[in-house]
Amino acid sequence: MFREMRRKKQQLSFEECQEVLSNEVRGVLSVIGDNGYPYGIPINYKYSSKENKIYFHGAKEGHKIDAISKNDKVSFTIYEKGVPIESKRGLNVRSVIIFGRIKIVEDKETTLNICRHISRQFNFADEEFIEGEIKKFANAVMCLELTPEHITGKLINES
After folding, report:
1. In a domain, 3, yes or no
2. The whole model's pTM is what?
3. Residues 6 or more apart from 42 whose CB is under 8 A from it?
4. Is residue 2 assigned to a domain?
5. If you average pLDDT over residues 21-46, what whole number do you get?
6. What confidence score (pLDDT) does residue 130 get?
7. Full residue range of the structural domain in which residue 93 is found
8. Number of structural domains in the chain
9. Which candidate, 3, 10, 155, places its Cα nearest to that of 83?
């Protein structure tokens, strides 16, 4: 159903893909938008390796939600900042692309817990601050759950 990676020597293992997903906090979520055009949204996320799910938070309405309500198939791309290659110009960069299906998280407490986890990723260690923001915006926030159907990762050597 999904294409195999053309440059197999550069392919990351599933465990390496999980490492990238666990260590990064931003990616690009792509949906099928208006008039069949792709719509990519830079977005924060939380990866749960235990569940192998990716969670997002955002507003309850807008282009992204309209697109998802019409077609739940999405792709999500994450890539690292890169590591300098010893004695060469360029970087080694790992990237991960996920194809899967996305749905709205219906349970309110789960939604709020996802928001807490995402906030903590950004060094908002002050629990009082996080709880204040959640109290303020709880009724306006929605969370999404991406269930991967296919995950591929690649090491790019820019030298």
Report:
1. no
2. 0.87
3. 26, 27, 28
4. no
5. 95
6. 87
7. 8-157
8. 1
9. 155
